[in-house]
Amino acid sequence: MYSKTENKAKKNIAILFFILFSITLYSQKKLCVHDPLENIEVAPTKKGNPKIGGTFGCVRIGSVKKCHHKKFNKEHRGLDLKAKRGTKLFSIHSGIVTKSITGYTDGNKYNNSKDALGNYLKIKSKINGKNVTILYGHLQKNMLSKGDSVKQGQLIGLTGITGNAWNVDHPHVHIKVVENSQTIDPCKYIGTSINKDGSINKTCDE
Length: 206
Ligand SMILES: [Zn+2]
Hints:
Layout: H1 4-27, H2 64-67, E1 79-82, E2 88-90, E3 95-101, E4 119-127, E5 130-142, E6 149-150, E7 155-159, E8 172-179, E9 182-184, H3 187-190, E10 192-194, E11 200-202
Antiparallel strand pairs: 1-8, 2-7, 3-4, 3-6, 4-5, 5-7, 5-8, 8-9, 10-11
């Protein structure tokens, strides 16, 4: 037989474990429908505005004129999301793989100059009547091949540092979105917006 105090202590320990368990469950980030990564965070840069240097547009160079110069186009035509090597990558939308480039060794700085995007995947979707192609670049591993069909939220690869990913200080995935032949800000299809300080507005709504 346990004494009353022993029973009480056991009960308290059980409650404590329950609270810890609940905190662990709660703190695990929920993946929103269009999230390519578990944690969406803009990759900062040294050039331009460091906090939003990973976003779409003329963010890495002060002068817009210089940025849009025909010869030296410095516009960042994608969105860089911070991701340490080997981070799980999920498909933003359902679609068909139209390109799967492999063969680049992750983290090998001197073996990655041939293709700026390194290992990458291109997934074509039809969204609200529009042809939308989403590209995921600088990957460590592609888990899909050309012609494969993909479901939204499906694990499609692992992020890495291949191609010219070395130009940015942080390991990241480069996401490029082409909507009806026009390169647009990927935020539209991730269902998010980015503030001037680089913070992200995101809800898990459809
Ligand atoms: Zn990029």
